[in-house]
Structures are given as C-alpha cells and as structure tokens.
Amino acid sequence: MGLVEMTHTDLAELSKAASGGNGGKQALKVALGTVDPKLAAIGDAFVGLQDQRHGADYDDDYVIDRASALAYVDDARQAITNADMLWREAEPSYQRFLGLAVGAVKVAKQR
Fold first, then answer.
1. 37 and 79 in contact (C-beta within 8 Å)?
2. Are the beta carbons of 94 and 39 closer than 8 angstroms?
3. DSSP string over 46-87
4. Tens digit of pLDDT for each residue in 65-86?
5. Matching Gene3D superfamilies, A to Z (predicted)?
C-alpha cells in the first residue's frame, strides 16, 4: 500500500471548493459536484480554523479572547458531528471529498 500525502494547503483548497465560496480551484469544484450543506459547513469550519491556527503559530501579535476560542471549539465540534453524519449516510459528495483528500487534490490543482 502506498503512502498518501495530504497537506494542510491541499485540504484547505479542497475545503474552499466544498464551501462554495470564491476560493478553491475550479477543477476541484467540478470534481466535487453538488455538495451537501453539511459538507460546505465542514469546509467553512476547516478554513476558519486553519486561518486561526496560522495566526497562533506565526503571528507574534496574535491574541484571542476566551469567547472567540470557545466559538472555534464549537465550530470544530459541529464539523466533526457533520462529518460523522455524512459518513453514516454514505453521502456522495462527502465520499468524493474524502477520495480527493487522499490523492486527487494534487492532480486537480494542476488543471
């Protein structure tokens, strides 16, 4: 079995495509097709949490208050709940998202 490489950058690109916003590569949006709203919410949460992680890791002036930190915890919890529901439902767009996450993002990003 081969090693699967998935970077935060790749997952962020895929999440942007899933959330339906202006970000994300067009090829990823086409590959995902119509996306379940719960998957779009997961994409939004991942991008938002990733932005905050970047701030915390790389910005010496980054400050967050308790209420905001707890709101991000709630976002993460809801994303996990959504992912669990989509998995149990075998929701097609989530299945495509997972497939892209483990290998096809690099291919789609080149198109």
1. no
2. yes
3. HHHHHHHHHHHHH-TT----HHHHHHHHHHHHHHHHHHHHHH
4. 999 999 999 999 999 999 999 9
5. Nucleotidyltransferases domain 2 (1.20.120.330)
